[in-house]
Amino acid sequence: MVISKVNASAATLTKNRTEGSVVPTSGMCVTCVDGCIGMCEIGKSAYRGHEVIYPQPFGVITTAAEKRFPVDYSHFNIMGTCVGAHGIEADSDKAIFPNVDLTVRFGHDNGIRFRRPWIIPGIGSTAIAKNNWEGLAIGSALMGTGLTIGENVVGMDPEAVLKDGRVVDTVDLKRRVELYRRYQRDGYGAIVVQANIEDTRLGGQEYAIEKLGVECVELKWGQGAKDIGGEVKIPDLGKAQMLSQRGYIVLPDPFDEEVIKAFERGAFKEFERHSRVGMVTEESFAKRIEELRSAGAKYIFLKTGAYRPVDLARALSFASKYKLDLLTVDGAGGGTGMSPWRMMNEWGVPPVELHSLLHQYASHLAEKGAYLPAITLAGGFAFEDQIFKGLALGSPFVKLVGMARGPIAAAMVGKTIGRTIDAMQVPVYIERFGNSKDEIFVTAADLRREIGQDEFDKLPTGALGLYTYYERLTQGLRQIMAGSRKFSLTHISRDDLAALTPEASRVSGISYIMDVDKQEAFNLL
Questions:
Q1: Which of 158, 260, 381, 413 is the most buried (most CB within 10 A)?
Q2: Domain spans, the chain
Q3: CA 456 → CA 146, 180, 184, 434, 446, distances in Å?
Q4: Angle made by CA atoms 426, 431, 435, in degrees to the nearest 5
Q5: Cα separation, 373 vs 323, whole angstroms
Q6: HEC readout, 348-383
């Protein structure tokens, strides 16, 4: 069954008056009563209008779609076996899950090394990203995984210095890069700088390459959460005017005298800043790749969203033809800091369908002997079983899984715990583990030994939260892989999955559970 919650959601801070009796098609209460104050989305829209398009409250939440798609990753189960081992000697004393190798290498020269097969695909200019960057950057760097600085960071920085419309110095972008670099260990992981139209016009990636020494840059065609450019809300008139002058779409017009008066008297409290949509052509794409390589970019990535299938084919074709190092494909309904709520639920190709099409297209190119970049799958991944399923579904082309909401949640929880420790008000639920970060965070002892007492004492608890979450994913993924007798990532295959429904099998090309091993089983019998 496909279900959309169409007129009430925690995301828009709305609810139906008759919660138990709702019209399936419209989402309206079965009985809409004259005199209701308007708790539902229609009612709230009657007095707050366009504000209700977006999840609320902005700046302290991340959001993902509530829609139930016909097929999702839970419609597959992981196949295990009691025979043999791949990637290690078939010896019970050696084929143990701590020996599973989770490192991955990719790039045109195999020069990018991650300790774990995941990356945060794009954390940009939203307040939720900026306010948790310390935990995200340090935690990712310590674990040796990738982190992408998303769109609009340069343009949103009030302290960025522009000359002739191009950036020559920044505070925020520089801070983000340097925080990651400071804690990076042994060359593992990568900090990536992404760009949309506005970033490109400002020369943000050239600045990152030339002034900050960034090696990895990413072009952004879109994401799974929305079909338009990035947007944020701005509670400050001066900043809204600055962003308008820098070329962003700002609504309402922050220079209109009547708008200024309305803002000052409290008729509305936030301006909206929007980015433009891209106009992809092969000519402009090829030109931009050449510009970045001429500027000194060592590795070039592309991120695309849940657009129609021909656009996925276009992204893969361009990434192949121009020999990019990584392509990220983000399925519909994925997480975001701010996207139009109904758009997030009702547009685009869902993850399993999109990733299955991707596998078809990549296989077609591979059969022709074409170059293929490493591929990242994104769109709602959060736990080790989902990571395994993504790697298996996209095998042998997919090298990484992209996650954002899970890592942000872990960093936020870690940060919040730190505040309760400082205030000596650790909640009872957490206090059962202790009252200090050494007692509460299970990774503390090992990490203190690895990086030293002084460095550990400086670690923000947001970083500890992310690192500890990643440690859980590490052990969980190793256990699942060992159960499938796959002791390195390169041995994971589509055969490690079974579809639980005929529909999931039809969409993905993964064998239906009742057909798995059928011939081999009867041959054995």
A1: 381
A2: 10-53, 102-403, 410-483, 496-524
A3: 21, 15, 14, 18, 10
A4: 70
A5: 7
A6: CCCHHHHHHHHHHHHHHHHHCCCCCCEEEEECCCCC
What is the C-alpha separation between 476 and 98, in angstroms, rounded? 10
Q: In this model, does residue 88 exceed pLDDT 70?
A: yes
Q: Are 65 and 332 in contact (CB under 8 A)?
A: yes
Would you state the pLDDT for residue 125?
A: 82
> Cα–Cα distance between 330 and 227 in angstroms, integer?
12
Taking the C-alpha atoms of residue 336 and residue 371, their distance in angstroms, rounded to an integer, is 32
Mean pLDDT of the chain, nearest integer: 95
- First-to-last alpha carbon distance for the chain, in angstroms, is 39
Distance, in Å, from the CA atom of 221 to the CA atom of 305, rounded to the nearest integer, reads: 7
Place of tokens 């699942």: 480
pLDDT band, residue 58 (cuts 50/70/90): confident
Give the closest residue to 201 by CA, choosing from 135, 141, 124, 291: 291
Dist CA 220 CA 389 (whole Å): 25
| CB burial of residue 13 (10 Å; 0-12, 13-18, 19+) | middle
DSSP state of 423: T
What is the band of 5 on the pLDDT scale with cuts at 50, 70, 90?
Answer: confident
Give 279's Cβ-side CA count (13 Å radius): 3
CB-CB contact of 302 with 324 (8 Å): yes
Task: In whole angstroms, give the CA distance from residue 367 to residue 354.
Answer: 20
Q: Which residue in 50, 78, 44 sits closest to 388, CA to CA?
A: 78
Task: Write out pLDDT tens, residues 120-136.
Answer: 998 888 888 889 999 99
Instruction: Return d(Cα 444, Cα 432) in angstroms, integer.
Output: 16
pLDDT over 70 (residue 40): yes
- According to DSSP, the residues that pair with 101 across neighbouring strands are 488
Statement: 102-403 belongs to CATH 1.20.1050.40: no
Q: What percent of the chain has pLDDT above 70?
A: 100
Q: What digits encode the pLDDT tens for the residues 384-425?
A: 999 999 999 999 999 999 999 999 999 999 999 999 999 999
Residue 3 has pLDDT above 80, yes or no: no
CB 498 within 8 A of CB 79: yes
> pLDDT digit string (tens) for 150-180?
999 999 999 999 999 999 999 999 999 999 9
Residue 22 β-bridge partners = 29
One-letter amino acid of 140: S
3-state secondary structure of 47: helix
| DSSP bridge pairs for 299 | 216
Give the pair of three-digit tokens for residue 15.
């609810």
Structure tokens given for 440? 């509460």
Q: What pLDDT sits at residue 1?
A: 60
Which helix (H) or strand (E) segment holds residue 166: the answer is strand 166-169
Spatial contact of 495 and 506, defined as CB atoms under 8 Å apart: no
pTM greater than 0.70 (yes/no): yes
Residue 494's closest CA among 476, 508, 506, 515? 508
